[in-house]
Amino acid sequence: MYKAPVEEIAFTLKHVAGMGEAMSNGLFDDLGEDLVDAILAEAGRFATEEVAPLAEIGDRQGARLVDGEVRLPDGWRDLYRSWIAGGWNGLTAPEAFGGQALPDMLNVAALEMWNSGSMAFALAPTLTMGAIEAVSTHGSAALKEKYLAKMVSGEWTGTMNLTEPHAGSDLGVLKARAERRPDGSYRISGQKIFITWGEHDAADNIIHLVLARLPDAPAGTRGISLFLVPKFLVNDDGSLGPRNDLFCHALEHKLGIHGSPTCTMIYGDGRFGDEKGAIGWLVGEEHKGLACMFTMMNNARLAVGMQGVAIAEAATQKAIAYASERTQGKAPGWSGAGMSPIIEHPDVARMLLTMKALTQGSRAISYACAHAIDMSRRAPDGGHWQERAALLTPIAKSFSTDAGVEVASLGIQVHGGMGFIEETGAARYLRDARIAPIYEGTNGIQAIDLVTRKLPLSSGDQVKGFIAELKGIADDVRRSNFDGFGETAARLDAAVADLEQATTWLLKALADDRTAEALAGATPYQRLFGLVLTGCYLAKGGLAESGDGKAEGRIALCRFAAENLLAETAALRDRVVNGAASLAAARILLA
Question: Residue 166's pLDDT is what?
């Protein structure tokens, strides 16, 4: 059973990602270590004792569509009510609407624990938190007053309605329609697919944020507007009114996250109400809905990165527990009676250490991204941190979710044949993890964003400055003279040099209008960046003086990552710099 790694999470927040320094500098107001530790401890307890025990039930039963109503797995409705009673939905939400306005760093740490307990369950608050941010940032005063308090409390959940059957990731071709009404409302009609927690029985109301086109909308993404469309209309006194003209037509039958109801939603076909059309209200300005939705999507991208971290952590815990108990053969040097635990076999130990390194590396990257978001809102040099957050977001989303799949797959391998049997629970992690590199912008789309939009920030100075900071971490390792680091400093030097060379090449390719060549290496570059960050952040953790007596283990893991995982960076650099020509030549095979 999963046990939240509260101490490791707290260490990464404070000593690697930057929370400790920010608190020391007074950037988090009166937030202190005692409160941070108390929040993390209670979040860990809830995830361990209440969320995780219901994960298997959710996977086995799944969400069910019964007589037009969606029913959650047994126990999940009560679990959600307990979750909102704890106030977890409003950690970072505005205080004016009942939130606690705490740093994003604390929220993503809590999200990791919810998702490790059950990724399918945690998707509900993940979407609601994104919807809260979109409405609080772009909504009118009237919308905020009517909807935000209940969304912040968690009494009402939120969704994001983008995708349509013909559109996929290309939102410029969506067909959902909106028509203006004299009273300032709009009538929405159309079909949306893959709507996470689009219908369920845990909350009193569901607030849908829906992208649609007005009749006079320009073509493409410049003609999209965003609308708030509640399941139940809300009266002026805040009470619930009649059912709006929308419903869940079907539930998707998915590879994983079975407990999460993934809905096909129909808007405005006349099933409910006096006339056809779901009633909605504009969020932001007409024809500028995509910019509003991106507020929610950027929030979701980091949250999805945390899903990768969470699955990796849970899969690693399960694999280590199994390998410690399962006996088979005799490992080299084994002197005990009978067969040795398989954790003693070098190849199994290598897999487990790879799992730990990728988990802790992706955790540090994601927390560092959250730190940059916090600094962009609180630090004097907020513009610098806003660019740092923009640079880190596609890496946090893609590297962490790829790591979640890789680690979950290794976890099955550690279990051997038993991992392929559903009863052991190892397979669920891989099935759940596999969606994360796909939704909220596939990892290929993240790579395009990273290379074409984020590297050129400040004419490339942002990424160049970041690389200089990474060089400084390698120098710190060299100056430490700790024997336990082994060849870490030299391996970090080489890996950072690989990243710098690939970055320089990509920036020049973009400047020379060779975008196709740059994009041919975008996905390898994204992994290269993530691996370098993993090595550097693990080194930063090994150098930290936390006083918890675990420095030796952190240094050992850092050395393992540097001397094993970072061996890949040279090959990734070559794929970035030299891969475009071979890709172009080989495309004949795809004709």
Answer: 81
* Angle between helices 346-378 and 551-564 in degrees, nearest 10: 100
Structure tokens at 93: 């939400």
* Residue for token pair 């219908």: 199
441-to-298, 310, 397, 448, 452 alpha-carbon distances in Å: 10, 19, 9, 10, 15
For 421-472, how does the pLDDT look when each residue is reduced to its tens digit (9 = 90+)?
Answer: 999 999 999 999 999 999 999 999 999 999 999 999 999 999 999 999 999 9
Query: How crowded is residue 571: how many other Cβ atoms within 10 Å of its Cβ?
Result: 12
Measured in whole angstroms, how far is the alpha carbon of residue 301 from the centre of its chain?
5
Q: Which of the residues are catalytic?
A: 440
β-partners of residue 66 are: 69
Strands 69-71 and 262-267 come out as: unpaired
Nearest to 478 by CA among 490, 495, 496, 466: 490
For residue 446, give Cα distances in angstroms to 61, 330, 394, 425, 459: 33, 45, 5, 30, 20
CA–CA gap between residue 190 and residue 275 (Å, rounded):
15
**Tokens 């003609």 identify what position?**
223
**pLDDT higher for 364 or 584?**
364
Q: Model confidence over 213-249: pLDDT tens digits?
A: 999 999 888 899 999 999 999 999 999 999 999 999 9
CA distance 3 to 321: 11
How many CB atoms lie under 10 A from the CB of residue 31?
18
| Virtual torsion, Cα 445, 450, 451, 457, nearest 10 deg | 140
Partner residues linked to 234 by β-bridges: 240
Q: Regarding beta strands 205-212 and 156-161, do their DSSP bridges make them parallel or antiparallel, or are they unpaired? A: parallel
